[in-house]
Amino acid sequence: MSNELTAHELMDQELVATLKERLDSNRKALHDLREVTKQLELINRKLQESEALKSHFLSNIRNEINNPLTSIMGLSRQLISKPETSENVSIVGPMIYMEAFNLDFQLQNIFIAAELEAGEASPSYSKVDVAGVVDTVLDLQIHQISQKNISVTKLTPESLYFVTDAQKLQIMLLNLLANAIEFTSDGSKVEIVAEQRDGGISLVVKDTGIGIDPDKQARVFDRFHQLDAGTTKKHRGHGLGLSISKALAEMLEGKISLSSAPGEGCTVELFLPEPSVEVNITSQDSNVFLFDEPEEF
Amino acid sequence: MIQESPQPELKHYLYPGALFVDSRPHLVTTVLGSCVAVCLWDSVQKVGGINHYLLPLWNGEGLSTPKYGNIAIEKLISGMLDLGCKKKYLVAKLFGGAALWQNQHGLLRVGDRNASLAQDILKEHNIPIVASDLLGEQGRKIIYNTETGAVLLRRHRSRVIDPNE
Fold it and tell me: What CATH number is attached to the domain comprising A151?
């Protein structure tokens, strides 16, 4: 009899324990579900914003492309009408170049963004003269730099060779430098530092411009996102530069990080590691010893 | 009659986050860890396309690239349709989604989520999955013949972390 009771009691205890366990796991599931729903709402909002920005971009593109083109047409007509004045050439020539450069730069960014979103971009690795790429990028921006009277300090080793994608490196650096120049006031300083460290290369672009609010820093990498948007925006461009640079850096297994405070300028670091993919990986037989015998599907 | 060459001459290495669709026969190689590759093949036109995504869903950050499964699969399907393929003739093969590290955080491991996303989206599109090799703990290297739809798979011997992680 007493034995039976104990057995009953045991069963009751087990039952209670099981019930408690189930209730707990239910509560946990409910909690997880709430968390997931919250995340979902957040993502949904971001996606809606992104779509809105994309349509905004399509209407904006008119200004961004038409304005420089109109300037180029007007300025070159001026040249044609008075070809005899060399003075004219020395003033109007650089203006045409600047407008054309900007247009080319914006278009290049749009095409690269399209290529990245289509999944058609892929890295092509080679041994790259990094210091040379820095020089090229500075050279490309020389007119903007001198127009805003910005003093650029370049700290790169005399020779810095690294296996990476030269073209993508140049696009990233050009965007970082263009941002630094755009958001730095006239007569200020911009610094570029390139060095080899931690098995990779680090490229830092530092400006003394308006800086970015810490809670807005994550958003600057979103496509079409400009902190200063709308019809009254002071800065040109589509808000593609950083999102492209981030996607390109990730493609090369690297990353871009940003540190800034309002009014204290902005420091952007691009870090690229030594590529882990073998340069000759396209050969089918590479690494065969690491893999088991093939199976067919 | 001249016998057809058994293997396409054109070769392509598919990087993580990229997409490949081409009407010409190719041998496409890619290496997968927790990433998933969807191989689509048109059984009538004998052409194929493949993607290689790292994460299941795009959350609105950065660019909407085929690094994310929901973008990569939709873009692959529309890429195939752009080649003139008919959806009813498309078949899919899925690979990857391994768990290369134990004790991963999150509600589910990323490999699992990558794999189930492909199954869900393909089901929505009514594209049958005719073969798959998913999950597990080993990386995989696949060579996809876009002309025959055949996939040659080699399993990584050890649980070594592969390049796309």
Answer: 3.30.565.10
A218, A51 Cβ separation under 8 angstroms:
no
Task: List phi, psi (to 5°) of B13.
Answer: -100, 120
Name the nearest CA neighbour of A226 among A1, A60, A75, A67.
A60
Which of chain B's residues have a Cβ under 8 Å away from the Cβ of A295?
A: 133, 152-155
| Structure confidence at residue A217 as a pLDDT band (50, 70, 90) | confident
Q: A294 — contact with chain B (CB < 8 Å)?
A: yes
DSSP A289: G
CA distances from A210 to A184, A218, A245, A266, B18 (A): 7, 17, 21, 8, 36
Confidence band for A42, pLDDT divided at 50, 70 and 90: confident
For chain B, 165 residues long, give each residue's pLDDT as a single digit of tens.
Answer: 445 557 888 999 999 999 999 999 999 999 998 899 999 999 999 999 999 999 998 877 788 899 999 999 999 999 999 999 999 999 999 999 988 665 555 555 788 889 999 999 999 999 999 999 998 888 899 999 999 999 999 888 765 444 444
Q: Do A265 and A165 fall within a single domain? A: yes
**Residue numbers of A between 94 and 153 with CB closer than 8 Å to B:** 113, 116-123
Q: What are the strands, taking DSSP E only, across B97-139?
A: 129-134
Domain-embedded: residue A296: no
pLDDT, tens digit, 9 for 90 and up, residues A241-274 = 899 999 999 999 899 999 888 888 889 999 999 8
Contact A250 B17 (CB under 8 A): yes
Q: What is the ipTM of this complex?
A: 0.73
Name chain B contacts of A32, Cβ cutoff 8 Å.
Answer: 107
Written as six digits, the tokens of A272 are: 């690229």
Pick the last residue of a domain from A121, A144, A176: A121
Task: Provide the domain limits for residue A255.
Answer: 126-291
**Residues A181, A256 within the same domain:** yes
Option in B17, B20, B133 nearest A297 (CB): B133
Q: Are residues A174 and A215 in the same domain?
A: yes
Q: Sheet of B90-96: strands edge to edge?
A: B19-22, B47-51, B36-42, B90-96, B129-134
**What predicted TM-score, i.e. pTM, was given to this entire model?**
0.76
Residues A128, A205: Cα–Cα separation, whole Å: 19
Inter-chain CB proximity A116 and B156 less than 8 Å: no
Q: Are residues A111 and A242 in the same domain?
A: no
Q: Cβ contacts (< 8 Å) between A119 and chain B: which residues?
A: 17-20, 51, 65-66, 72, 75
